[in-house]
C-alpha cells in the first residue's frame, strides 16, 4: 500500500513520466509515458542501490538517468559504489527545505548553537543538514565527524546547545564529556542503525533530549520525530510504499514480519528517483493520531537491512567494493566482512582465508579508501559461521 493522497500520486506520476525521458528508465520500464498512471503504478519496476551502481560507467557517470543538461547542474555528490548524485540549484533548495522542516520538528531552532558532526566531504547529508539548520536560524558549528575530544572541548567552551550526530558517536562523545559542565540539551540522531534503548540511554544517562531523523542517501529526509518523540512522521510530500523484502510484493509492516521502505522523490528533477527500494526494514506503522497535530503516519526505528548492503557510521558498506579492491592485489581467496559493535563503536574487519601475505596495512588502507571508512584486514584459517560476504553481528532486531 502506498501512503499517499491524490495529489501525492499525481506528483509521483509526473516524476515517473519525467524519468522516462532518460535512457536508463526507458530501457528498464518498456512503456510509454501515457502508460504511467496511478492505476498502473505498482507495475513500475523497482530501483535499488545495486542497479544504480551497475548503471554507472566511465562514459556516463549518471547511469543514463540525467534528465537535465549538464549546464543546469549545481552540485554533484558521490557515494560509495560509486553512485554520482547530480542536483540542480532548485533541487538543492527543495531538499534543504525538507531538512529544515525535519530538524525544526525535532526541536532545533533559532536559539540553538548546533554542532553538526556528519561528514561534509563527497556525500550530501552534512551539506543539507547545515543548510537546514541555518534556515531555522541556528548557529552552526561545522565540526564534522571524529575528533571526539575536540568536539567535547567546543561543546564546553562555545555554549553548544544542540547536536546532529549518529547515535554511536553521540554516546561516545557524551561519555567523554562526563561530568564536565556543558549546555548541550538537544540531539538529533540519524545515519545508522541503533538499538532499541539508545534514545532512552541518551536521555536518562546524560540528560540530553534525543529525537530521531531517518533519511535515504538518494532522497534525503524521509521521516522525523516531533517534540513528543513517539515515532518518526513520514513526509507527506513523498510517495512511500512498503514491500515484502523477499518478494517485492506490497505489504504492511507488522511485528515479526518486517517490510522494506520504498520511496519516490519529487525534489530531484536532475535525476529522478522512482520506487527506490531503500533496503531499510521496519516492523510497525503507527497510524493513531499524534498529539502534535501532524496527521502523517509514523514509523519507529529502522530495525535492520534487507540486503547485503548495510550502513556503518552513515556510510554504505558495499561488499562488491571490497572484493574488487582485494582483486587489485591479486587476492581472490574466500573472504567476508565482519561488522561488530564494541562499547558503542562500530568496527569493520575484512577476513581472508589463507596464509598471511602481502603488505596487509597497504591492503587495509586501500579497502578503507574504497569504503571511505576505516577497516582492518586479517588472514584467517576459516571464516566465521554465516552466509554471504557480509556478517553483521550488531543484531539490532534482537536488542
UniProtKB/TrEMBL annotation:
This is Phenylacetate-CoA ligase. PANTHER family: BLR5969 PROTEIN. Keywords: Ligase. SUPFAM superfamilies: Acetyl-CoA synthetase-like. It comes from Saccharopolyspora spinosa. The lineage of its organism: Bacteria, Bacillati, Actinomycetota, Actinomycetes, Pseudonocardiales. One of its GO terms (molecular function) is ligase activity. The keyword Repeat does not apply.
Amino acid at each position: 500500500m502506498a501512503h499517499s493522497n491524490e495529489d501525492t500520486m499525481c506528483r509521483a506520476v509526473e516524476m515517473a513520466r519525467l524519468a522516462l525521458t532518460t535512457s536508463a528508465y526507458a530501457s528498464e520500464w518498456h512503456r510509454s509515458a501515457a502508460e504511467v498512471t496511478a492505476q498502473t503504478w505498482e507495475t513500475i519496476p523497482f530501483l535499488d542501490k545495486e542497479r544504480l551502481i551497475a548503471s554507472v560507467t566511465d562514459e556516463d557517470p549518471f547511469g543514463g538517468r540525467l534528465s537535465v543538461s549538464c549546464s543546469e547542474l549545481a552540485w554533484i555528490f558521490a557515494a560509495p559504489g560509486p553512485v554520482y548524485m547530480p542536483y540542480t540549484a532548485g533541487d538543492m533548495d527543495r531538499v534543504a527545505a525538507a531538512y529544515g522542516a525535519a530538524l525544526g520538528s525535532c526541536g532545533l531552532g533559532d536559539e540553538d548553537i548546533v554542532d553538526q558532526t556528519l561528514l561534509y566531504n563527497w556525500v550530501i547529508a552534512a551539506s543539507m543538514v547545515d543548510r537546514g539548520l541555518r534556515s531555522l536560524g541556528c548557529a552552526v558549528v561545522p565540526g564534522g565527524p571524529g575528533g571526539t575530544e575536540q568536539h567535547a572541548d567546543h561543546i564546553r567552551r562555545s555554549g553548544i546547545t544542540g547536536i546532529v550526530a549518529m547515535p554511536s558517536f553521540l554516546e561516545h562523545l557524551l561519555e567523554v564529556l562526563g561530568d564536565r559542565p556543558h549546555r548541550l540539551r538537544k540531539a538529533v540522531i540519524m545515519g545508522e542503525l541503533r538499538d532499541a534503548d539508545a534514545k532512552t540511554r541518551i536521555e536518562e544517562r546524560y540528560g540530553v533530549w534525543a529525537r530521531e531523523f531517518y533519511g535515504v542517501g538518494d532522497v534525503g529526509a524521509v521521516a522525523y520525530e516531533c517534540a513528543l518523540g513517539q515515532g518518526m512522521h513520514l513526509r507527506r510530500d513523498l510517495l512511500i510504499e512498503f514491500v515484502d523484502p523477499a518478494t517485492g510484493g506490497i505489504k504492511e509492516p507488522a511485528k515479526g514480519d518486517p517490510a522494506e521502505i520504498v520511496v519516490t522523490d519529487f525534489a530531484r528533477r536532475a535525476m529522478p528517483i522512482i520506487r527506490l527500494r531503500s533496503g531499510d526494514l521496519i516492523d510497525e506503522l503507527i497510524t493513531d493520531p499524534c498529539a502534535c497535530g501532524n496527521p502523517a503516519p509514523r514509523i519507529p526505528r529502522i530495525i535492520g537491512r534487507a540486503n547485503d548492503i548495510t550502513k556503518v557510521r552513515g556510510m554504505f558498506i558495499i561488499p562488491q567494493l571490497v572484493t574488487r579492491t582485494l582483486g587489485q592485489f591479486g587476492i581472490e581467496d574466500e573472504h567476508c566482512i565482519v561488522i561488530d559493535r564494541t562499547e558503542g563503536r562500530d568496527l569493520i574487519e575484512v577476513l581472508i582465508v589463507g596464509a598471511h601475505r602481502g603488505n596487509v596495512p597497504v591492503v587495509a588502507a586501500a579497502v578503507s579508501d574504497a569504503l571511505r571508512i576505516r577497516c582492518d584486514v586479517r588472514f584467517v584459517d576459516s571464516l566465521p559461521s554465516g552466509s554471504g560476504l557480509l556478517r553483521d553481528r550488531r543484531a539490532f532486531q534482537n536488542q
